[in-house]
Amino acid sequence: MDDRLERALDFSNFRLTLHNQKQSAKQRAENMLQVQYSNSLFKADQTLINFVKTMKDEGYTPFVVNDVHNNPVQIEDSELFFEKLISAYASAMNEYIISHEKIKKARNIKRLVEWE
Amino acid sequence: MKKSKKQETSNDLLNGNNGVAFFAYNNEQIDYIKLAVLAASAVKKHMKNNQTCLITNQGSLEWGVESLSTEVLNNTFDYFITEEPEHKSNIRKFYDSPWATFECQFENWNKNDIIKLTPFDRTLMLDVDFLVNNNFFDTTFELDNPLMLYTDAITLRNEKPFHVLERRLHKKGIPMLWSTAIYFDKNDEVVQLFFELWGHIKDNWDFYRYLYGFSTKIYRTDFAVSIATHMLNGFVENTLVKSLPDNPMKYVEPKDDIESVLSDGIRFLSHKPDEEWLHMLAVSKNENLHIMNKKAIDRNWNKLMELYE
């Protein structure tokens, strides 16, 4: 095989594996962002965290937000809900950035899949 | 039916009578009891709601005692239920990588009886080739949804299933839901209706095959739960049964293989569906995994068990 092509295909394989491992890390973070409150499930994203903080700070308690299935849920204890959201967000994103950095630093497939 | 209980349970009693149930009926090719021990060990390691129940038949249980020991079984399961399923031929082709296949009886006729067999009020029924690698499923027991399953799946390559029959019942059919993991509250009326209807669909399988337009003759519980959900939801796309918290389910295809077991994860060889001779390495950590290549689990059983010690 032409060396140039071989090098290009090696890199192409590397990019494919890199993309896949990044997707897995992202999916794991998405799952970790889920928060259970009042028998319902929420995603602790930046929008929800900001909204809850605003409602809490402005004294709108209790208030209503949609869960992941778009069902309205009344938030009685906004302090507890907010704590759960930021805690889930922090642990998910901290783990995500560690995985992401590790993947980013890998310069070959062996490193990416921890072969060595 | 014999129902026996071990002395100690590991469930947090504050959580109520929750637990995880497995069906395991050995055949001449696959030791389902061995797979169930691995799957239940993973549950014990990662979940808080970790009472476990093994539903099996006398022959499989006796083989489990002989091959693994009573101690291993008792350490892994809190409940044993022996139930001999009605025998109907259900020969299925299994893959072990793209290069090896085998055929054997697939015993899944009584999966819908779980609602009668389970000792738990709230049950997570898992296939024995499903490995729990985090605590996301604990959330299911705290939600207001009495019935949940995986409504979508992705492969090791983080892609939607390649084959249409893993997305829809046929190319223009209803969406396929997965019966690999089903959470339910057995005291809920809609749940009872769901399992009754599942039984009815199973009993009239040929009719429903014709009605829903798919050609596969083997009885597939994925298809049965998809039809039951579709019917209960007024014959429109599902809004009734909610997805499990970590939906989509990550699955390892039967043609994929385990390359090696790491100290904190598993490295796989993932085949390319349209060019099966091409593979990619993929490392999985902390993800729940449906590993459909059962021979691969069997080959790596000892090392996989070390992950859950």
Description of the structure:
The complex is a heterodimer of chains A (116) and B (309). Chain A is an alpha+beta fold and 116 residues long. In chain A, 64% of the residues lie in helices and 14% in strands. Chain A has one domain. Chain A has a two-stranded antiparallel ribbon. A two-stranded antiparallel sheet of chain A has the order 3-4. Chain A starts with a helix and ends with a helix. The model of chain A has no long low-confidence stretch (mean pLDDT 94). Chain B is α/β, with parallel strands linked by helices. Chain B has ten helices and 17 strands. In chain B, α2 (58-68) crosses α3. Chain B is globular and about 50 Å long. The A-B interface holds A 13, 16-17, 20-21, 23-24, 27-28, 31, 34, 36, 39-41, 69, 109, 112-115 and B 134, 136, 139, 142-144, 154, 156-158, 242, 245-246, 250, 262, 267, 280-284, 286-287.
Mean pLDDT of chain B: 91
Report Rg of chain B. 18 Å
Task: Compute the separation of the termini of chain A in Å.
Answer: 27 Å
Q: Please report the distance between the alpha carbons of the first and last residues of chain B.
A: 32 Å
